[in-house]
């Protein structure tokens, strides 16, 4: 098989690429010059994307193997209260997951974090939040209602009350379970 070669010849590229091209991500202005007077000059200019803080990192409990981020709010705990952790693990086990599959992040430790930063750090495709104020700056970009799944930044986001409140109320447990079944495609 013949080895393929790469060319940066503008004439060759303009004859091969006749469709409009769009650059995703940030880049400098690029111009392909063509020696043929009748062929158009191609210019590409992309707007810079907002840069995340290079120091943004999160301490979390779990291994995040299935890219599920669980947001909690415990100002007096490192991650989560023991009783609530036990209840959460029961819920997660009903979805055939365990602590290795999720990342529990105590948002009380990160009051100015954004969904974009969480998504960039965890590469999460699902976020479940417990006891996070829906008017919090974290959710300023979207409108959330409890137990309703919202798509945002290529993630499914579910908000619910505090775990201890859900654990004591069968109607709330049922609402949470119904939303989780939809989120995780459980029959």
Written account of the structure:
- There is one protein chain.
- With 187 residues, the protein is an alpha/beta fold.
- It folds into 2 domains: 10-44, no CATH class; 68-183, Uracil-DNA glycosylase-like domain (Uracil-DNA Glycosylase, subunit E, 3-Layer(aba) Sandwich), CATH 3.40.470.10.
- Helices cover 25% and strands 17% of the residues.
- It contains 5 helices and 7 strands; from the N terminus they run H-E-E-E-H-E-H-E-E-E-H-H.
- It has helices spanning 10-16, 82-94, 115-122, 163-167, 170-183, and strands at residues 30-32, 42-44, 68-72, 102-106, 126-130, 149-152, 155-160.
- The strands form 2 sheets. It has a 5-stranded mixed beta sheet with strand order 4-3-5-7-6.
- Helix 2 links the parallel strand 3 and strand 4.
- The longest helix has 14 residues, at 170-183.
- It is globular, with a radius of gyration of 23 Å.
Question: H/E order of the elements?
Answer: HEEEHEHEEEHH
Highest CATH level, the class of the largest domain: Alpha Beta
What distance lies between the first and last C-alpha atoms, to the nearest angstrom?
49 Å
Estimated structural class: alpha/beta
Query: Going by CATH, what is the homologous superfamily of the largest domain?
Result: Uracil-DNA glycosylase-like domain
Secondary structure tally: strands: 7
Low-confidence stretches: 27-35, 42-52
Mean pLDDT: 81
Largest sheet composition: 5 strands, mixed
Estimated helix fraction: 25-40%
What Rg is obtained from the alpha carbons, in whole angstroms?
Answer: 23 Å
How many helices in DSSP terms? 5
| Strand residues, percent | 15-25%
Number of domains: 2
CATH topology of the largest domain: Uracil-DNA Glycosylase, subunit E
General form: globular
CATH architecture of the largest domain: 3-Layer(aba) Sandwich
Q: Widest sheet: strand order? A: 4-3-5-7-6
């Amino acid at each position: 098989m013949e080895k393929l070669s790469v060319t940066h010849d503008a004439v060759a590229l303009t004859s091969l690429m006749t469709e409009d091209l769009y650059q995703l991500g940030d880049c400098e202005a690029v111009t392909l010059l063509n020696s043929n007077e009748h062929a158009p000059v191609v210019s590409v200019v992309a707007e810079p994307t907002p840069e995340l803080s290079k120091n943004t990192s999160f301490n979390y409990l779990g291994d995040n193997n299935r890219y599920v981020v669980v947001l909690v709010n415990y100002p007096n705990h490192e991650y989560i209260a023991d009783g609530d952790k036990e209840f959460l693990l029961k819920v997660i086990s009903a979805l055939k997951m365990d602590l290795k599959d999720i990342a529990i992040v105590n948002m009380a430790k990160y009051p100015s974090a954004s969904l974009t930063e969480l998504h960039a750090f965890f590469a999460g495709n699902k976020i479940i939040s417990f006891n996070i104020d829906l008017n919090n700056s974290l959710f300023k970009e979207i409108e959330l209602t409890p137990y309703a799944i919202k798509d945002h930044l290529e993630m499914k986001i579910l908000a619910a009350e505090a775990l201890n409140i859900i654990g004591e109320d069968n109607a709330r447990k049922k609402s949470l379970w119904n939303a989780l079944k939809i989120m995780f495609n459980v029959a």
